[in-house]
């Protein structure tokens, strides 16, 4: 029973050297921040997909573009994604059509407005995903640093004893390996989430780009 207590996770953490404890604390902090952004990003992407689906159904149902624009403009501060891209493009289209008869310039101006809004929306979706990638790649090495340091301390302690045995170094090695375990615990969810979010964001970006192409063609037909 005593041996089991001495090898419990909390006991090993409490008995680890200061540097190993600092490494564990850093990894625990990175893990908590990662999980915060994992949940935040998951809800954001889910809301973006839902909003995009609703707007696509409304847009392709054959409704009047002016009505759609008025609805989007009235909720400019709350609309996101494809609806915001539509609002920016149609606003620029109506502005330029009132000032110019150059159809190419009108379509180009509308397209630039949509591209700028598209980039802002994608930047917002991609924000903090780089942090997850960083945690996924760096956390195992930070844990390995704590492990190496802890094992060095464990073997250094053998210099003061006449008879070396596994029982003397086992607690120190176990303490050190906890750092690696915490590093992997921080890294694995971050890597999985980053890969999933990157895939989802790419798919959303493709839907935005397809909409911009199709909407540009619709605006061209409105100028004829």
TrEMBL record:
**Entry's InterPro entries?**
ExbB/TolQ_transport, MotA_ExbB_proton_chnl, Tol-Pal_TolQ
Q: List this protein's GO terms for biological process.
A: bacteriocin transport; cell division; protein import
Primary location group: membrane
Question: Which species is this record about?
Answer: Pseudazoarcus pumilus
Q: Which UniProt keywords apply?
A: Cell cycle, Cell division, Cell inner membrane, Cell membrane, Membrane, Transmembrane, Transmembrane helix
The answer to whether UniProt assigns keyword Cell inner membrane to this entry is: yes
Which Pfam families does this one have?
Answer: MotA_ExbB (PF01618)
User: Would you tell me the protein name for this molecule?
Assistant: Tol-Pal system protein TolQ
Q: How does it assemble?
A: The Tol-Pal system is composed of five core proteins: the inner membrane proteins TolA, TolQ and TolR, the periplasmic protein TolB and the outer membrane protein Pal. They form a network linking the inner and outer membranes and the peptidoglycan layer.
- Output the superkingdom of the source species: Bacteria
